[in-house]
Amino acid sequence: MNLKALGRCIDQPVILNKLQKKMPVLLIGAGGGYGVLDTYMSTRGKSKEQKKTKAVKNSIIISSTIAASLIGANGLKIAGKQIVPRLLEKSSLTEILENNKKAVDKYIKDSKPAKKIADVLNKAKTQALSKKDVAFVLKELPESESKNKLLSVLLPEAENLDAKGIFSEIGRLSLLGAIPVVGGILGGITADKVTNTASKKSTSNKIKEGFYQYFANIFLCNVGACAALFAAEGLQKSKMIKPLTPLRKMIVILTGITTTGIIGGSYIANKMSQKIIDPLFAGKSNHNPSCKGVYDERKPELADIALHADDIATAGVLSGFKWIEPALPLMYFVSGYRAGIGYRNQEKHP
Predict the structure, then answer these.
(1) pLDDT tens digits, residue range 286-325?
(2) Is-contact 103 154, C-beta < 8 A?
(3) Mean pLDDT in the chain?
(4) Cα separations (Å) of 110 from 114, 143, 144, 204?
(5) How many CB atoms lie within 10 A of CB 169?
(6) Its domain of life (predicted)?
(7) What are 243-282's pLDDT values in tens digits?
(8) Nearest-5° angle of CA 217, CA 180, CA 261?
Protein backbone atom coordinates (compact mmCIF):
# COMPACT_ATOMS: atom_id res chain seq x y z
CA MET A 1 0.00 0.00 0.00
CA ASN A 2 1.29 3.46 -0.94
CA LEU A 3 0.83 5.25 2.39
CA LYS A 4 1.94 8.59 0.99
CA ALA A 5 -0.70 8.42 -1.75
CA LEU A 6 -3.33 7.34 0.79
CA GLY A 7 -2.49 10.23 3.11
CA ARG A 8 -2.60 12.80 0.32
CA CYS A 9 -5.82 11.25 -0.99
CA ILE A 10 -7.82 11.55 2.23
CA ASP A 11 -6.48 15.05 2.91
CA GLN A 12 -8.01 16.37 -0.34
CA PRO A 13 -10.11 19.50 0.34
CA VAL A 14 -13.08 17.90 -1.46
CA ILE A 15 -13.04 14.91 0.92
CA LEU A 16 -12.60 17.13 3.98
CA ASN A 17 -15.63 19.14 2.87
CA LYS A 18 -17.74 15.97 2.61
CA LEU A 19 -16.61 14.78 6.04
CA GLN A 20 -17.52 18.14 7.58
CA LYS A 21 -20.99 18.01 6.02
CA LYS A 22 -21.64 14.53 7.41
CA MET A 23 -20.41 15.27 10.94
CA PRO A 24 -23.64 16.87 12.30
CA VAL A 25 -25.68 13.87 11.14
CA LEU A 26 -23.15 11.41 12.59
CA LEU A 27 -22.98 13.32 15.87
CA ILE A 28 -26.76 13.53 16.27
CA GLY A 29 -27.19 9.88 15.28
CA ALA A 30 -24.46 8.60 17.59
CA GLY A 31 -25.58 10.78 20.51
CA GLY A 32 -29.24 9.91 20.09
CA GLY A 33 -28.48 6.22 19.72
CA TYR A 34 -26.36 6.18 22.86
CA GLY A 35 -29.06 8.06 24.79
CA VAL A 36 -31.69 5.45 23.90
CA LEU A 37 -29.35 2.56 24.74
CA ASP A 38 -28.19 4.07 28.05
CA THR A 39 -31.75 4.87 29.11
CA TYR A 40 -32.83 1.30 28.40
CA MET A 41 -29.81 -0.39 30.03
CA SER A 42 -29.71 1.77 33.17
CA THR A 43 -33.45 1.60 33.96
CA ARG A 44 -34.21 -2.09 33.45
CA GLY A 45 -36.45 -3.31 36.26
CA LYS A 46 -37.17 0.24 37.45
CA SER A 47 -40.46 2.09 37.64
CA LYS A 48 -42.05 3.91 34.73
CA GLU A 49 -41.41 7.25 36.45
CA GLN A 50 -37.70 6.47 36.86
CA LYS A 51 -37.45 5.50 33.20
CA LYS A 52 -39.14 8.75 32.21
CA THR A 53 -36.78 10.78 34.41
CA LYS A 54 -33.71 9.10 32.91
CA ALA A 55 -35.01 9.60 29.36
CA VAL A 56 -35.67 13.30 29.96
CA LYS A 57 -32.24 13.81 31.54
CA ASN A 58 -30.42 12.04 28.74
CA SER A 59 -32.37 13.97 26.11
CA ILE A 60 -31.49 17.35 27.64
CA ILE A 61 -27.83 16.52 28.36
CA ILE A 62 -27.18 14.96 24.95
CA SER A 63 -29.00 17.74 23.09
CA SER A 64 -27.09 20.50 24.88
CA THR A 65 -23.74 18.73 24.40
CA ILE A 66 -24.37 18.13 20.70
CA ALA A 67 -25.50 21.73 20.21
CA ALA A 68 -22.39 23.03 22.01
CA SER A 69 -20.11 20.73 19.96
CA LEU A 70 -21.59 21.93 16.68
CA ILE A 71 -21.54 25.60 17.71
CA GLY A 72 -17.89 25.27 18.72
CA ALA A 73 -16.99 23.65 15.41
CA ASN A 74 -19.12 25.72 13.04
CA GLY A 75 -19.64 28.96 14.95
CA LEU A 76 -22.98 30.70 15.43
CA LYS A 77 -24.62 33.37 13.30
CA ILE A 78 -27.74 35.26 14.35
CA ALA A 79 -29.38 37.65 11.88
CA GLY A 80 -26.25 37.52 9.72
CA LYS A 81 -23.99 38.51 12.63
CA GLN A 82 -21.21 36.12 13.73
CA ILE A 83 -21.82 35.64 17.48
CA VAL A 84 -19.44 32.70 17.99
CA PRO A 85 -16.42 32.33 15.65
CA ARG A 86 -15.90 29.07 13.75
CA LEU A 87 -13.11 26.91 15.22
CA LEU A 88 -12.86 24.41 12.35
CA GLU A 89 -11.82 25.68 8.94
CA LYS A 90 -14.31 25.16 6.13
CA SER A 91 -14.60 26.12 2.47
CA SER A 92 -17.63 25.60 0.25
CA LEU A 93 -17.51 22.75 -2.26
CA THR A 94 -18.12 25.25 -5.07
CA GLU A 95 -15.09 27.29 -4.00
CA ILE A 96 -12.90 24.18 -3.70
CA LEU A 97 -13.83 22.87 -7.15
CA GLU A 98 -13.34 26.33 -8.67
CA ASN A 99 -9.82 26.46 -7.19
CA ASN A 100 -9.15 22.95 -8.51
CA LYS A 101 -10.31 23.97 -12.00
CA LYS A 102 -8.07 27.04 -12.08
CA ALA A 103 -5.04 25.05 -10.86
CA VAL A 104 -5.58 22.20 -13.35
CA ASP A 105 -6.21 24.51 -16.31
CA LYS A 106 -3.06 26.52 -15.54
CA TYR A 107 -0.92 23.39 -15.17
CA ILE A 108 -2.20 21.87 -18.44
CA LYS A 109 -1.67 25.17 -20.27
CA ASP A 110 1.87 25.69 -18.93
CA SER A 111 3.17 22.11 -18.84
CA LYS A 112 1.21 20.43 -21.67
CA PRO A 113 1.19 16.96 -20.05
CA ALA A 114 0.34 13.71 -21.87
CA LYS A 115 -3.36 13.05 -22.52
CA LYS A 116 -3.52 10.30 -19.87
CA ILE A 117 -2.20 12.68 -17.21
CA ALA A 118 -4.50 15.49 -18.35
CA ASP A 119 -7.53 13.17 -18.21
CA VAL A 120 -6.77 12.24 -14.59
CA LEU A 121 -6.19 15.86 -13.58
CA ASN A 122 -9.44 16.97 -15.21
CA LYS A 123 -11.35 14.66 -12.85
CA ALA A 124 -10.34 16.97 -9.98
CA LYS A 125 -12.51 19.73 -11.48
CA THR A 126 -15.69 17.91 -10.43
CA GLN A 127 -14.76 15.30 -7.81
CA ALA A 128 -12.14 13.92 -5.44
CA LEU A 129 -9.39 11.84 -7.01
CA SER A 130 -9.24 8.14 -6.13
CA LYS A 131 -6.20 6.69 -4.35
CA LYS A 132 -5.15 5.13 -7.66
CA ASP A 133 -5.40 8.52 -9.39
CA VAL A 134 -3.44 10.21 -6.60
CA ALA A 135 -0.66 7.62 -6.78
CA PHE A 136 -0.56 8.07 -10.56
CA VAL A 137 -0.31 11.86 -10.33
CA LEU A 138 2.42 11.77 -7.69
CA LYS A 139 4.45 9.30 -9.74
CA GLU A 140 3.93 10.54 -13.30
CA LEU A 141 4.07 14.32 -12.98
CA PRO A 142 7.67 15.48 -13.54
CA GLU A 143 9.20 17.52 -10.74
CA SER A 144 8.74 21.23 -11.36
CA GLU A 145 7.51 24.42 -9.75
CA SER A 146 4.27 24.02 -11.72
CA LYS A 147 3.73 20.57 -10.18
CA ASN A 148 4.29 21.92 -6.67
CA LYS A 149 1.76 24.71 -7.21
CA LEU A 150 -0.80 22.27 -8.63
CA LEU A 151 -0.42 19.77 -5.79
CA SER A 152 -0.62 22.50 -3.15
CA VAL A 153 -4.22 23.00 -4.34
CA LEU A 154 -5.33 19.47 -5.30
CA LEU A 155 -3.34 17.34 -2.85
CA PRO A 156 -1.95 19.54 -0.07
CA GLU A 157 0.70 17.92 2.09
CA ALA A 158 0.29 17.57 5.85
CA GLU A 159 1.13 20.89 7.51
CA ASN A 160 4.59 20.75 9.04
CA LEU A 161 3.82 22.64 12.25
CA ASP A 162 6.64 23.32 14.69
CA ALA A 163 6.20 23.75 18.46
CA LYS A 164 5.38 27.47 18.05
CA GLY A 165 2.76 26.72 15.41
CA ILE A 166 1.28 23.98 17.55
CA PHE A 167 1.07 26.38 20.50
CA SER A 168 -1.50 28.45 18.60
CA GLU A 169 -3.33 25.27 17.60
CA ILE A 170 -3.52 24.22 21.26
CA GLY A 171 -5.60 27.30 22.07
CA ARG A 172 -8.05 26.49 19.29
CA LEU A 173 -8.32 22.77 20.12
CA SER A 174 -8.59 23.40 23.86
CA LEU A 175 -11.47 25.81 23.27
CA LEU A 176 -13.08 23.32 20.88
CA GLY A 177 -12.94 20.73 23.67
CA ALA A 178 -14.07 23.12 26.42
CA ILE A 179 -17.31 24.15 24.71
CA PRO A 180 -18.95 20.66 24.74
CA VAL A 181 -17.88 20.19 28.38
CA VAL A 182 -19.55 23.48 29.37
CA GLY A 183 -22.58 22.51 27.28
CA GLY A 184 -22.76 19.17 29.06
CA ILE A 185 -22.56 20.76 32.53
CA LEU A 186 -25.27 23.32 31.72
CA GLY A 187 -27.42 20.60 30.17
CA GLY A 188 -26.99 18.41 33.24
CA ILE A 189 -27.93 21.20 35.66
CA THR A 190 -30.96 22.05 33.50
CA ALA A 191 -31.98 18.38 33.38
CA ASP A 192 -31.87 18.16 37.18
CA LYS A 193 -34.08 21.23 37.53
CA VAL A 194 -36.59 19.98 34.93
CA THR A 195 -36.87 16.59 36.65
CA ASN A 196 -36.82 18.05 40.20
CA THR A 197 -33.69 16.08 41.13
CA ALA A 198 -31.33 19.03 41.63
CA SER A 199 -29.01 19.09 44.63
CA LYS A 200 -25.75 20.76 45.60
CA LYS A 201 -23.98 17.40 45.43
CA SER A 202 -25.30 16.68 41.95
CA THR A 203 -24.26 20.12 40.68
CA SER A 204 -20.81 19.89 42.24
CA ASN A 205 -20.30 16.43 40.72
CA LYS A 206 -21.04 17.80 37.26
CA ILE A 207 -18.58 20.65 37.68
CA LYS A 208 -15.94 18.31 39.12
CA GLU A 209 -16.33 15.86 36.25
CA GLY A 210 -16.15 18.80 33.85
CA PHE A 211 -12.82 19.78 35.41
CA TYR A 212 -11.68 16.16 35.24
CA GLN A 213 -12.61 15.77 31.57
CA TYR A 214 -11.14 19.11 30.54
CA PHE A 215 -7.85 18.94 32.41
CA ALA A 216 -7.17 15.20 32.25
CA ASN A 217 -8.58 14.56 28.80
CA ILE A 218 -8.20 17.80 26.84
CA PHE A 219 -6.16 20.80 28.02
CA LEU A 220 -3.18 19.15 29.73
CA CYS A 221 -2.99 16.59 26.94
CA ASN A 222 -2.57 19.47 24.50
CA VAL A 223 0.06 21.11 26.71
CA GLY A 224 1.92 17.80 26.96
CA ALA A 225 1.86 17.46 23.19
CA CYS A 226 3.45 20.89 22.73
CA ALA A 227 6.09 20.30 25.44
CA ALA A 228 7.10 16.93 23.99
CA LEU A 229 7.41 18.36 20.47
CA PHE A 230 9.42 21.34 21.73
CA ALA A 231 11.87 18.93 23.41
CA ALA A 232 12.05 16.72 20.31
CA GLU A 233 12.78 19.73 18.10
CA GLY A 234 15.67 20.61 20.40
CA LEU A 235 17.05 17.08 20.05
CA GLN A 236 16.60 17.28 16.29
CA LYS A 237 18.57 20.53 16.08
CA SER A 238 21.33 18.87 18.10
CA LYS A 239 21.23 15.98 15.59
CA MET A 240 20.55 13.53 18.42
CA ILE A 241 17.46 12.17 16.65
CA LYS A 242 16.36 11.78 13.03
CA PRO A 243 14.30 14.51 11.30
CA LEU A 244 10.70 14.67 12.50
CA THR A 245 8.40 13.38 9.77
CA PRO A 246 4.62 13.80 10.36
CA LEU A 247 4.42 10.18 11.59
CA ARG A 248 7.37 10.55 13.99
CA LYS A 249 5.94 13.85 15.15
CA MET A 250 2.65 12.11 15.92
CA ILE A 251 4.47 9.51 18.06
CA VAL A 252 6.26 12.28 19.98
CA ILE A 253 2.98 14.12 20.53
CA LEU A 254 1.22 10.97 21.77
CA THR A 255 4.06 10.41 24.23
CA GLY A 256 3.58 13.92 25.61
CA ILE A 257 -0.17 13.42 25.79
CA THR A 258 0.20 10.17 27.73
CA THR A 259 2.70 11.55 30.22
CA THR A 260 1.08 14.90 30.92
CA GLY A 261 -2.61 14.27 30.35
CA ILE A 262 -3.40 10.72 31.34
CA ILE A 263 -0.93 10.51 34.23
CA GLY A 264 -0.79 14.08 35.53
CA GLY A 265 -4.13 15.46 34.39
CA SER A 266 -6.30 13.23 36.57
CA TYR A 267 -4.24 14.12 39.66
CA ILE A 268 -4.45 17.87 39.03
CA ALA A 269 -8.18 17.73 38.22
CA ASN A 270 -8.97 15.81 41.41
CA LYS A 271 -6.86 18.16 43.52
CA MET A 272 -8.68 21.17 42.08
CA SER A 273 -12.02 19.51 42.80
CA GLN A 274 -11.10 18.86 46.43
CA LYS A 275 -9.46 22.22 47.11
CA ILE A 276 -11.67 24.58 45.09
CA ILE A 277 -15.01 23.10 44.02
CA ASP A 278 -15.95 21.13 47.15
CA PRO A 279 -15.54 24.15 49.49
CA LEU A 280 -17.79 26.20 47.19
CA PHE A 281 -20.63 23.71 47.64
CA ALA A 282 -21.44 23.58 51.37
CA GLY A 283 -17.80 23.50 52.43
CA LYS A 284 -16.56 20.43 54.22
CA SER A 285 -20.01 18.91 54.47
CA ASN A 286 -19.88 18.26 50.74
CA HIS A 287 -16.83 16.03 51.05
CA ASN A 288 -17.31 12.28 50.92
CA PRO A 289 -16.08 11.09 54.35
CA SER A 290 -14.48 8.04 52.77
CA CYS A 291 -12.41 10.18 50.41
CA LYS A 292 -8.96 10.36 51.97
CA GLY A 293 -6.78 10.22 48.89
CA VAL A 294 -6.70 12.11 45.63
CA TYR A 295 -8.22 9.22 43.67
CA ASP A 296 -10.79 7.97 46.19
CA GLU A 297 -13.70 9.84 44.59
CA ARG A 298 -12.66 9.82 40.94
CA LYS A 299 -9.89 7.56 39.70
CA PRO A 300 -8.86 6.75 36.12
CA GLU A 301 -10.45 3.59 34.72
CA LEU A 302 -10.48 1.64 31.46
CA ALA A 303 -13.29 3.76 30.03
CA ASP A 304 -11.17 6.88 30.64
CA ILE A 305 -8.30 5.37 28.69
CA ALA A 306 -10.73 4.66 25.84
CA LEU A 307 -11.84 8.31 25.97
CA HIS A 308 -8.31 9.27 25.01
CA ALA A 309 -9.16 8.27 21.45
CA ASP A 310 -9.82 11.99 21.03
CA ASP A 311 -6.18 12.62 21.92
CA ILE A 312 -5.09 10.34 19.09
CA ALA A 313 -7.26 12.50 16.84
CA THR A 314 -5.77 15.65 18.36
CA ALA A 315 -2.27 14.27 17.80
CA GLY A 316 -3.16 13.66 14.18
CA VAL A 317 -4.38 17.23 13.74
CA LEU A 318 -1.28 18.67 15.44
CA SER A 319 0.88 16.45 13.22
CA GLY A 320 -0.72 18.03 10.15
CA PHE A 321 -3.22 15.34 9.12
CA LYS A 322 -6.27 17.45 8.30
CA TRP A 323 -8.72 14.60 7.57
CA ILE A 324 -8.96 13.85 11.32
CA GLU A 325 -10.15 17.34 12.23
CA PRO A 326 -13.85 16.94 11.25
CA ALA A 327 -14.14 14.06 13.75
CA LEU A 328 -13.10 16.15 16.78
CA PRO A 329 -16.64 17.31 17.73
CA LEU A 330 -17.71 13.65 17.91
CA MET A 331 -14.71 12.79 20.09
CA TYR A 332 -15.23 15.70 22.48
CA PHE A 333 -18.96 14.94 22.78
CA VAL A 334 -18.16 12.02 25.11
CA SER A 335 -16.35 14.30 27.56
CA GLY A 336 -19.29 16.70 27.53
CA TYR A 337 -21.80 13.94 28.23
CA ARG A 338 -19.81 12.56 31.17
CA ALA A 339 -19.60 16.05 32.64
CA GLY A 340 -23.36 16.42 32.19
CA ILE A 341 -24.17 13.31 34.22
CA GLY A 342 -21.55 14.18 36.85
CA TYR A 343 -19.78 10.85 36.46
CA ARG A 344 -18.07 9.64 39.64
CA ASN A 345 -16.80 6.06 39.10
CA GLN A 346 -19.12 3.60 40.87
CA GLU A 347 -21.70 6.20 41.89
CA LYS A 348 -25.17 5.80 40.36
CA HIS A 349 -26.40 8.51 37.98
CA PRO A 350 -30.21 8.57 37.95
Answers:
(1) 455 455 566 666 776 665 555 555 556 666 666 566 777 8
(2) yes
(3) 84
(4) 12, 14, 11, 65
(5) 17
(6) Bacteria
(7) 887 778 778 877 887 777 667 777 888 888 888 888 887 5
(8) 10
CA distance 204 to 344: 11
What backbone phi and psi angles, to 5 degrees, belong to 78? -130, 120
List the one residue out of 4, 8, 69 whose CA is nearest residue 323. 8
d(CA 100, CA 154): 6
Task: Report the share of the chain in percent with pLDDT over 90.
Answer: 45
Among 118, 124, 71, 75, CA closest to 96: 124
Report d(CA 318, CA 167) in Å as an integer. Answer: 10
Q: Shortest CA distance to 342 belongs to which of 33, 57, 42? A: 57
The residues near 136 (Cβ < 8 Å, ≥ 6 apart) are: 117, 120
Question: By CB neighbour count within 10 A (0-12 exposed, 13-18 middle, 19+ buried), where does 129 fall?
Answer: buried
Instruction: Compute how many other C-beta atoms are within 10 angstroms of the C-beta atom of residue 218.
Output: 27
Q: Please say whether the beta carbons of 243 and 223 come within 8 A.
A: no
Q: Are residues 73 and 86 in contact, defined by beta-carbon separation less than 8 angstroms? A: yes
Residues linked to residue 77 through DSSP beta bridges, in sequence order: 82
